[in-house]
Amino acid sequence: MYASREDIGYDFGDDSKVRSKPIKPNPNIDGGWAWMIVLSSFFVHILIMGSQMALGILNMEWLEEFNQSRGLTAWVSSLSMGITLIVGPFIGLFISMCGCRMTAIIGGILNALGWILSAYAANVHYLFLTFGVTAGIGSGMVYLPAVVMVGQYFQKRRALAQGLSTTGTGFGAFLMTALLKYLCTEFGWRNAMFIQGAISLNLCVCGALMRPLSPKDLREKYVVRSDSEENRAKALSHSAETIKSNGVLGEEPEKKEETANEEVLGSVQHIEIGGKSGSGRSMYGLRLFKTVSQLTVTVRKGFALWYSSYFGAASLFTNRVFVAFVIWALFAYSSFVIPFIHLPEIVKQYNLSRQDNVFPLTSIIAIVHIFGKVILGIISDLPCISTWNVFLLANFTLVTCILTLPLMQTYVGLAVVCALIGFSSGYFSLMPVVTEDLVGTKHLANAYGIIICANGISALFGPPFAGWIYDITQKYDFSFYIAGSLYMVGIIFLLIQPCIQKKQPREKSTEEAQV
């Protein structure tokens, strides 16, 4: 199952010059404040992803309150989950301009506002706007920075760090399911959402902990990474030279942009020095002009990086494996979300509510999901193991469980399948690692934004589709079969593209020989 760099078909340049420079490592890379970033990301996953995994409880309350169809009601949960991920590319723009810390704090306020406003919902359509859109956008503004910051602060233990931080989803699903059940029973679903909104304000604290690394620290991380990957030879790893050769990064336009920006600021400083003898009012005007100029430069640089990543000559979409990764993401996430939203209904349909009340199936997924993320992260960090192969194996296991779940009609059978779903879905902790291996730390925010956007589209249409199929057939079986089949198509794309990448250099050399 081991795949070398050559297996993926990437050309790794000579970075001996880079390795020859002795670099003193930053103590915050793989240690120090990096673990505070992991803790912050952990609580973000509890409060956002964990809460979304527990929405099956509120979904049942909304069905009773508003007397709407399952398909329509499921749109509330799907909008929240989907928009959280779909806004990823646009959140990448915010991160480029404002940084992860400010983006996360603003997102925490929006998320809390969405929960609180939803407590006053008069109908399902009101929830679409307050909970689906408002809380969803706020969640996205916190979630993406939480993932990106962990990727920036870790080099040697990236998979483990992402695994530990994303276990918050499992803990959150378990804790929030119990909390929302209790709050709905004791206070009703409206007060439960109001209280949950107050709890969500803690996301602002998590955002405040996201202290940014300096550009110098990020450059040091690139050098350390290129040296360590020489020894580990992971499947999709790369260096800065590799990405440039594949057309993903373009440094020249960026250098020109920085030069132009420095000239603007330099001219402002020259005017300010020349005007020191002027009046206080003119000095205040110059300082204001300088502040506006600096803000304009920051916005221009952030937008230029964001635009070049998506639409410029250095587009991320020139990387074919990355494109295959996006296609996979379009089909994958719904297969994980559908069980969380509809399992409570399936349990009631099979008359298994008594056993499920003792130990809910969604809680089984959540608990085993925790161990899956940590264990898969530890395995992927081993020198002799390919992260790419662990990722693919976990995907095959999950799609098999999704296709098998409708065949189980006893509590024990459903519990076993749910446990396997929980463990294999631990590959979510590897997604940022695989994405960073494809595009590099510098473009991680934009690239991972695209990936979770594709996941969001999957989450947006998955549960309503399952509810719509149920309304027609009065069974959830076909929902799982169709979702599993589409998921398998996405996995096939992941398998095909590395083979194409590997064959291309050989075809090129054959053509040259004929000439």
Automatic annotation (TrEMBL):
Keyword Nucleotide-binding: no
One term of GO molecular function: monocarboxylic acid transmembrane transporter activity
TM ranges: 33-55, 75-95, 102-120, 126-148, 160-180, 192-210, 321-341, 361-379, 386-405, 411-434, 446-466, 478-496
Annotated Major facilitator superfamily (MFS) profile domain residues: 37-502
PROSITE patterns: MFS (PS50850)
UniProt GO cellular component terms: membrane
Chief location: membrane
Pfam family, one: MFS_1
Highest rank taxon of the organism: Eukaryota
Subcellular location: Membrane
Keywords: Membrane, Transmembrane, Transmembrane helix
Topology relative to the membrane: Multi-pass membrane protein
Family annotation (PANTHER family): MONOCARBOXYLATE TRANSPORTER (PTHR11360), MONOCARBOXYLATE TRANSPORTER 14 (PTHR11360:SF239)
Name of the protein this chain belongs to: MOT14 protein
Organism: Pomatorhinus ruficollis
Lineage, opening ranks: Eukaryota, Metazoa, Chordata, Craniata, Vertebrata
